[in-house]
Amino acid sequence: DETEFRNFIVWLEDQKIRHYKIEDRGNLRNIHSDDWPKSFEKYMKDVNCPFKMQERQETVDWLLGLAVRLEYGDNADKYKDSTPDGAKNTDNTAKNAEPLINLDVNNPDFKAGVMALANLLQVQRHDDYLVMLKERLTQDAIAKANQSREGLPVALEKHILGFDTGDAVLNEAAQILRLLHIEELRELQTKINEAIVAVQAIIADPKTDHRLGKVGR
């Protein structure tokens, strides 16, 4: 929303960044002005933001980073010895290390994620989403996955998933499933190519005739 975006920029400048003096923030605060984009563009230049106005997501991220750095600089003594809440509790640390332990399979978001993965990976749809998961976890599938294969390690961060489940662990699992699916497609394509080559070899044989089965010299 354009109004919320402009209010957000004004709030950052007023409360955290404070690059302008109070009396110089009038143009930026006038969010309903037709000239606001020009004021915002000037503001980005003044704070040395490396992104363009059209790059909203990058600009917001950069300004937030600037605000955090300034907030920390103003309160370094307060924040330098801070410990993340998760690190204070060993139980929380253990849970964070094994996020799938507390996975709720009845959660609507989890169901929606399974359905989305099924569509992307072209797994046959089923009324029971757990059945779809089992189709990918049959004994044959597990045995095939456990077969040792030599190959180069894959850097998951270099492969774009194309969607976001909202959970880093599920995103990584989806990347792995997609790569495995691509590998299966390549194996199928290889078999198809081998079959085509075999058929072509038979057709190209001068001793073979499609009418009599054997003609020629």
UniProtKB/TrEMBL annotation:
Protein name: RNA transcription, translation and transport factor protein
Entry-linked InterPro entries: RTRAF
Family named by the database record: Belongs to the RTRAF family.
Origin: domain of life: Eukaryota
